[in-house]
Amino acid sequence: MALNWLEVFAGLKNPGMRATLGLVLSDQREQLEQNSATTKNLSRWQSIGLLTECDGKLVVDDDALSQALAAHRKPAEDRAGIQRFFDGPRLRTLPARPEDRRAVMEAVRHAVLSPGERVSEAQLGDRLRVIHDDVALIRRYLIDHGLLVRSIDGAEYSLPPGAEQ
Q1: Would you call 74 exposed, middle or buried from its count of C-beta atoms within 10 A (0-12, 13-18, 19+)?
Q2: Residue 38, burial from CB neighbour count under 10 angstroms (0-12, 13-18, 19+)
Q3: pLDDT higher for 31 or 41?
Q4: 3-state secondary structure labels for all residues of the chain
Q5: Pairing mode, if any, of strands 57-60 and 51-54?
Q6: 19 burial level (CB within 10 Å; 0-12, 13-18, 19+)
Q7: What is the pLDDT of residue 164?
Q8: Packing angle between helix 135-144 and helix 121-131, nearest 10 degrees?
Q9: C-beta separation of 104 from 91 below 8 A
Q10: How confident is the model at residue 149 (pLDDT cuts 50, 70, 90)?
Q11: Is the pLDDT score of 15 beyond 60?
Q12: How many CB atoms lie within 10 A of CB 156?
């Protein structure tokens, strides 16, 4: 049976279930009061899949925990390169390292502007908003990294002369 994290967290929210689990985990079963609530809590932890019986003793099902963690782990290739900063098309976090930030800004530039295209500030803002909520910051980074140029009057944005897309 696959371990359901929602059920585990719901069990941990319940003070009685939390106390029962604590006594089992700290190997203090003799302190468990044998009453209907304790029996119900132990049974619930077993039905959730967190506890299993081994040699007549309830223990944490390490295999179930490992499988649950593995099921929610992102593949290594998803965390490599600049993709580790994105959730789909959205920029999740801005890199601290300048090299990473430039690489991310290059990807953003590729996504929002084509060679030869000139766009107004409003158009650029609409495109950047799909990627990140702080449009002004992203626009500033694009300009600071020399990936985008603004017309003299500030009305239009385009790729710098000779820039490859």
Answers
A1: exposed
A2: middle
A3: 41
A4: CCCCHHHHHHHHHCHHHHHHHHHHHCCCHHHCCCCHHHHHHHHHHHHHCCEEEECCEEEECHHHHHHHHHHHCCCHHHHCHHHHHEECCEECCCCCCHHHHHHHHHHHHHHHCCCCCCEEHHHHHHHHHHHCCCHHHHHHHHHHCCCCEECCCCCEEECCCCCCC
A5: antiparallel
A6: middle
A7: 59
A8: 110
A9: yes
A10: very high
A11: yes
A12: 16
Buried b (16+ CB within 10 A) or exposed e, 43-72: ebbeebbbbeeeeeebeebeebeeebeeee
Residue-level length of the chain = 165
Distance CA 125, CA 141 (A): 13
* Residue written as token pair 């992203």: 138
Half-sphere exposure of 5 (CA within 13 A, CB side): 8
Report the distance separating Cα 35 and Cα 156, nearest Å.
74
Stated pTM of the model: 0.53
d(C-alpha 67, C-alpha 163), whole Å: 48
Question: What does each C-alpha distance from 85 to 79, 88, 110, 134 come to in angstroms?
Answer: 8, 10, 16, 15
Q: Is the pLDDT of residue 14 over 90?
A: no
